[in-house]
Design brief:
globular; mainly alpha; 310 residues; 0% strand
């Protein structure tokens, strides 16, 4: 009997620390949140209104620099040719320099002043001792992504359909028909600011935990860079998201080739409903059809159809 009591006490001693992290109050994300709060950067840095800005900027450039290295110095690498969407399109230093100038200019003139204003007028971020629940964390991020996906679909559609908006604001981003990583924020200030606001406000709608907001921002940046990187890598979401619901680099690459298609930044739901989705199969069918029309036209077998297709 004494032995059984002793074993039970040992079991309780073993389970109690684990249970603290799986109860509603302290769940599986608690160790991660504790690490973030107690890290060498200190809680004061996390509370600062500048933290989300610095985090986003540093993470953004950390994402695009590896692709820049590959584009400029890894052109002959085997895997580069294997995974590049348009292997015949070369990324040159003048192209990178041009996009870098606009990116840094926007950060200097718009991101930096807004960060200073945020530092002056925004109160410090409260850091709750308890992490968000795993379910709350997951659905807040997914809901924010889905909402932004619809918001940007409407924004993007309008900036292609309304000639004034396209000509004066969005055309800059479409200067390159074969996107590369620096094209991600190769934007007119209007686009940078409005899309940035849409990205930021969605977690606020749910009263999300600050840790959830930060992770959502990092995910948004990562998928935006992935959409413009010009590569389909083995771990790209389009390779594992079911039913072809993820657009990713291929769909956005096709959008830069055919601007009246693929307006969504992440998914394909609204493009499918609106009839604006354009896939690699559609592109191949268009190429085959064009080649057939050109062949028939060369042999005097077609008349009006050539004009209709063009």
């Amino acid at each position: 009997m004494a032995a059984e009591v002793l074993n039970l006490e040992r079991l309780v001693d073993f389970v109690t620390p684990i249970a603290e992290y799986v109860t509603p109050e302290q769940n599986v994300l608690q160790p991660v949140w504790d690490f973030v709060r107690q890290g060498p950067w200190g809680e004061d840095a996390l509370r600062s209104p500048l933290f989300p800005v610095v985090m986003s900027v540093v993470f953004y450039f950390s994402c695009i620099l590896p692709f820049m290295i590959v584009d400029l110095w890894g052109k002959e690498w085997h895997w580069t040719k294997k995974y590049k969407i348009q292997p015949d399109k070369e990324v040159t230093w003048p192209m990178v320099r041009n996009t870098m100038v606009i990116t840094f200019w926007n950060h200097l003139l718009y991101v930096l002043p807004s960060a200073v204003g945020q530092y002056i007028y925004t109160p410090p971020t409260p850091l709750p001792p308890v992490s968000p629940g795993l379910w709350e964390f997951t659905w807040h991020i997914m809901a924010s992504l889905i909402i932004f996906d619809f918001q940007y679909f409407v924004w993007h559609w309008l900036h292609h359909k309304v000639r004034f908006l396209y000509k004066h604001f969005h055309a800059l981003h479409h200067q390159y028909h074969s996107p590369f990583s620096w094209v991600t924020q190769y934007l007119h200030p209007w686009e940078l600011i409005t899309v940035g606001i849409l990205t930021t406000i969605n977690p606020w709608l749910f009263g999300s935990h600050c840790f959830t907001i930060w992770v959502y921002m990092l995910i948004s940046i990562a998928v935006s860079v992935e959409a413009h990187c010009g590569f389909v890598l083995p771990w790209s979401p389009m390779n594992w998201v079911p039913f072809g619901l993820w657009g990713g680099a291929v769909k956005h690459d096709l959008h830069h080739q055919r601007p009246y298609s693929n307006f969504e930044p992440f998914f394909c739901i609204w493009d499918r409903l609106a009839g604006t989705e354009f896939t690699l199969k559609d592109r191949q069918r268009a190429i085959d059809r064009r080649e057939k029309i050109e062949y028939d036209g060369h042999n005097g077998l077609v008349g009006r159809e050539v004009k209709k297709f063009n």
